[in-house]
C-alpha cells in the first residue's frame, strides 16, 4: 500500500511544481513528473512479487506471471507522453523566441 | 448496408496521413480532400439515422470474441448517443472545413492545418465510439494534441501563450484521467466500460470508487471547461483561427468533456446522488458565472467563448437534473424531458456557437481586428454576416421561432416539474443576461456608427465562407423541427434512451 501512496505523493509533487514554478521549462518538468508517477502507478498495479515475464512456455504449469495489460498501457501512455512533452517544449521555445524570456510573469498578453 | 463504426475513425485518419504526403506535391489537394472526407463523414452519419439501424452496433477490433462473457478485444460501440454526437461532429466539421477554404488563405502551411483538423476529428470520433476506457483516453489525447497545435497555429505572441496555458491545464486533466483509468483497472481488473459497469454493480460503492469519480469529474470538467476549471477556454478559443474556434467551442468540449463525463456517470458507474449534486452545482455555476463574465468582454471572440461556458452550463444542468431524478426515484418522464432538453441544447449550441464564431471570423477577415471598440456599422458593408449573426444571437438567447428557445424551454420546464425552483429561476434570469450580451455584441459590431479607426482589408467575403454561414442559419431553423415527435423519435430519442436506461448498456454489449 505504501508504494501506491508514495506514487500519489509523487503525483502531488509534480502538481506542486506545475502550480508554483515561474519558469516555463520547470512547468514542463513538473508535468513530466506527474506523468511518470502515473506510469509508475500503472506498472505497479500489474506487479506481483517474484512474478515472471508473461511469456508462455510449453510444458510449464501454472507459473506466476505479472499482469501484461498495464505494461501495454504504460507503453502506449509513454508514447502519448512523448508527444505532449515535445509539443509543450516546442511551444515553450517559440514563446522564448517571441518574448525573449521563460518567465511566466512576463508572458501575460492575455487578460480578462 | 451494414454499419462499420471503424470507418468513422479510419476515414479522417487516412486524411490526416495523406494530406501532408500528397499535398506536398499536388497543389490544392488538401482542400479538396479535406472537404471530401468531412462530407463523406456527414453522409455516413446521416445514413445511420436513415437506415434505421436498431439498437447498437458493436465491433470487436481484431475479431477477438469474448471468452466466458469476459471481453478481450477493444470494443467500438455505436449506439443512439454516439450516433447523435457523431452527427454533431460531422456537421460542424464539414462546415468549418468548407469555411476554412476561403478563410485560411491568410496563413501559411495549409497542408498542416487540414491534416491536424482531420486528426482532431478522428480523435473525437474515437472518443465517442470507444467502448474501452483506456482507448477513450488514447483518442482523447489524439484530439487534444491536435487541438493544442491548432490553437497555436497563428504562432504570434497571444496564440502561443494561449496554447501553452491550454496545454498545461489540458495536460493536468489528461493525467488525472489516466490516473483514474489506472484506479478503475485496479478495482475491477478490466478496461471494457460495459464490463467495468458489471463488476462495479456487484461490488457496490467504496471509498476508492468515490475518489476515482471525483478525479474523473475534475479531469473531464477541465476538458469541458466547467467553472471553476474554465481558465484556459477563453484564451484558447479566442486565439485559434475562427474555423477552429467553431470546432473547439462547437464540438470538442462536448465530445471529450460532456459526452465522456455523462457516458461514464450514467452507463458505467452506478448512479450516485452525491455526484449528481456535484454536477448540478458545477453546471449552475458555469451557467451563471460564465454568463456574467461574458457581459464585460470587449474582444468579440472572448465574449463568445465565455458564452460557451454559460451555455454548456445549461446542458450540464439539464443532464444533471435527469441524473438526480433517476436516482432519487423521481418521475422518469421528467428525467427524460430534462435529458432530452440537455442533449437538444447541446446540438443547438454546437450549430449556433459554430455560426457565431464563423461570423466573428468573417468580421476579422474583413477588418483585421477583434476589438469591439474599433468596430461599428458593419451591417451596411456585410449584410449577410449581420443577418446571420442576428439570427444566431436571437436563437441562442431563446427567442421563439428559433431552436434555442425550445431546448431552453425543455430544460426550464423539467427544472420546475422536478422542483428545482432555484435552478429554473437562474436559468430564466441567465437567459436574459445572454440576450443582453448578444444584443451588445450585435450593436457594437454591426449597428453603431462606423469608427474612424476601422478600415477594410478585403473587398468581399469568399464564397466558401458565405456558404457555410448561410447553411448554418438554415440548420438552426431546421433544428427547431426536433421538438416535433416525428423527427425527435429518429434523432433525439435513441440518444436519450441510452442515458435513461443506465444499466442496459452493460446488458446490450457484453450480454450479462
Please give a quick description of this structure.
The complex is a heterodimer of chains A (112) and B (512). Chain A is mostly helical. Chain A has three helices and no strands.
Please write out the topology.
The complex is a heterodimer of chains A (112) and B (512).
Chain A lengths: L1 H19 L3 H22 L22 H32 L13
Helix pairs in contact in A: 1-2, 2-3
Chain B lengths: L5 H18 L5 H22 L6 E4 L14 E4 L1 H24 L6 H20 L3 H19 L5 H32 L4 H11 L3 H18 L8 H7 L2 H27 L4 H23 L4 H28 L4 H36 L10 H4 L1 H14 L6 H15 L3 H27 L15 H17 L5 H16 L3 H7 L2
Antiparallel strand pairs in B: 1-2
Helix pairs in contact in B: 1-2, 1-4, 2-3, 2-4, 3-4, 3-10, 3-13, 3-18, 3-19, 4-5, 4-10, 5-6, 5-10, 6-8, 6-9, 7-20, 8-10, 9-10, 9-12, 10-12, 10-13, 11-12, 11-17, 12-13, 12-16, 12-17, 13-15, 13-16, 13-18, 13-19, 15-17, 15-18, 16-17
Q: Whole-number radius of gyration of chain A?
A: 20 Å
Roughly how many Å is the radius of gyration of chain B? 22 Å
Largest interface: A-B, 33 and 37 residues
Classify the beta-strand content of chain B into a percent band. Answer: under 5%
Separate helix tally of chain B:
20
Can you offer a commentary on this structure?
The complex is a heterodimer of chains A (112) and B (512). With 112 residues, chain A is mainly α. Helices cover 65% and strands 0% of the residues of chain A. Chain A is built from three helices and no strands. Chain B is mainly α and 512 residues long. Chain B has one domain (6-510). Chain B has helices spanning 6-23, 29-50, 80-103, 110-129, 133-151, 157-188, 193-203, 207-224, 233-239, 242-268, 273-295, 300-327, 332-367, 378-381, 383-396, 403-417, 421-447, 463-479, 485-500, 504-510, and strands at 57-60, 75-78. A two-stranded antiparallel ribbon of chain B has the order 1-2. Classes of the chains: A mainly alpha (112), B mainly alpha (512). Chains A and B meet through helix 1, helix 2 and helix 3 of A and helix 5, helix 6 and helix 9 of B.
Amino acid at each position: 500500500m505504501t508504494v501506491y501512496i508514495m506514487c500519489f505523493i509523487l503525483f502531488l509533487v509534480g502538481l506542486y511544481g506545475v502550480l508554483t514554478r515561474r519558469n516555463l521549462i520547470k512547468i514542463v518538468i513538473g508535468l513530466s513528473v506527474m506523468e511518470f508517477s502515473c506510469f509508475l502507478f500503472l506498472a505497479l498495479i500489474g506487479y506481483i512479487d517474484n512474478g515472471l515475464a508473461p511469456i508462455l512456455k510449453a510444458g510449464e504449469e501454472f507459473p506466476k506471471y505479472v499482469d501484461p495489460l498495464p505494461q501495454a498501457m504504460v507503453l502506449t501512455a509513454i508514447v502519448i507522453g512523448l508527444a505532449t512533452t515535445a509539443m509543450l517544449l516546442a511551444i515553450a521555445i517559440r514563446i522564448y523566441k517571441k518574448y525573449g524570456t521563460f518567465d511566466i510573469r512576463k508572458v501575460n498578453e492575455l487578460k480578462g | 448496408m451494414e454499419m462499420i463504426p471503424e470507418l468513422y475513425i479510419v476515414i479522417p485518419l487516412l486524411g490526416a496521413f495523406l494530406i501532408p504526403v500528397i499535398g506536398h506535391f499536388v497543389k490544392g489537394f488538401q482542400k479538396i480532400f479535406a472537404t471530401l472526407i468531412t462530407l463523406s463523414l456527414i453522409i455516413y452519419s446521416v445514413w445511420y439515422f436513415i437506415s434505421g439501424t436498431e439498437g447498437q452496433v458493436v465491433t470487436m477490433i481484431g475479431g477477438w470474441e469474448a471468452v466466458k462473457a469476459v471481453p478481450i478485444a477493444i470494443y467500438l460501440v455505436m449506439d443512439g448517443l454516439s450516433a447523435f454526437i457523431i452527427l454533431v461532429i460531422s456537421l460542424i466539421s464539414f462546415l468549418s472545413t468548407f469555411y476554412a477554404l476561403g478563410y485560411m488563405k491568410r496563413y501559411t502551411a495549409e497542408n498542416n492545418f487540414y491534416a491536424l483538423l482531420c486528426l482532431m476529428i478522428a480523435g473525437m470520433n474515437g472518443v465517442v465510439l470507444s467502448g474501452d476506457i483506456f482507448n477513450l483516453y488514447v483518442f482523447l489525447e489524439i484530439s487534444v494534441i491536435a487541438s493544442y497545435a491548432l490553437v497555436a497555429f497563428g504562432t504570434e505572441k497571444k496564440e502561443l501563450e494561449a496554447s501553452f496555458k491550454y496545454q498545461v491545464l489540458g495536460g493536468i486533466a489528461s493525467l488525472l484521467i489516466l490516473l483514474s483509468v489506472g484506479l478503475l483497472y485496479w478495482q475491477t481488473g478490466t478496461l471494457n466500460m460495459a464490463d467495468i459497469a458489471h463488476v462495479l454493480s456487484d461490488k457496490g460503492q467504496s471509498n476508492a470508487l468515490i475518489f476515482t469519480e471525483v478525479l474523473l469529474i475534475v479531469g473531464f470538467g477541465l476538458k469541458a471547461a466547467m467553472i471553476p476549471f474554465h481558465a484556459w477556454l477563453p484564451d484558447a478559443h479566442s486565439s485559434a483561427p475562427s474555423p477552429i474556434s467553431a470546432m473547439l467551442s462547437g464540438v470538442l468540449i462536448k465530445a471529450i468533456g460532456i459526452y465522456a463525463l455523462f457516458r461514464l456517470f450514467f452507463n458505467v458507474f452506478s448512479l450516485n446522488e452525491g455526484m449528481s449534486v456535484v454536477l448540478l452545482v458545477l453546471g449552475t455555476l458555469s451557467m451563471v458565472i460564465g454568463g456574467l463574465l461574458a457581459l464585460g468582454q470587449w474582444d468579440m471572440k472572448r465574449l463568445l467563448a465565455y458564452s460557451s461556458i454559460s451555455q454548456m452550463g445549461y446542458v450540464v444542468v439539464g443532464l444533471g437534473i435527469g441524473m438526480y431524478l433517476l436516482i432519487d426515484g423521481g418521475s422518469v418522464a421528467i428525467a427524460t424531458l430534462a435529458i432530452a432538453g440537455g442533449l437538444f441544447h447541446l446540438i443547438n449550441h454546437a450549430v449556433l456557437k459554430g455560426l457565431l464564431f464563423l461570423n466573428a471570423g468573417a468580421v476579422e477577415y474583413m477588418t483585421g481586428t477583434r476589438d469591439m471598440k474599433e468596430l461599428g456599422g458593419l451591417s451596411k458593408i456585410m449584410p449577410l454576416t449581420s443577418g446571420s449573426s442576428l439570427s444566431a444571437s436571437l436563437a441562442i438567447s431563446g427567442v421563439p421561432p428559433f431552436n434555442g428557445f425550445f431546448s431552453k424551454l425543455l430544460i426550464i420546464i423539467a427544472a420546475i416539474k422536478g422542483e428545482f425552483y432555484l435552478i429554473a429561476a437562474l436559468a430564466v434570469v441567465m437567459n436574459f443576461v445572454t440576450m443582453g450580451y448578444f444584443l451588445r455584441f450585435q450593436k457594437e459590431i454591426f449597428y453603431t456608427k462606423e469608427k474612424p479607426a476601422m478600415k477594410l482589408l478585403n473587398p468581399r467575403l469568399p464564397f466558401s465562407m458565405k456558404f457555410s454561414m448561410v447553411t448554418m442559419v438554415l440548420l438552426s431553423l431546421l433544428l427547431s423541427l426536433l421538438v416535433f415527435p416525428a423527427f425527435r423519435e429518429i434523432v433525439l430519442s435513441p440518444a436519450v434512451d441510452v442515458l435513461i436506461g443506465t444499466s442496459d448498456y452493460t446488458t446490450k454489449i457484453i450480454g450479462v
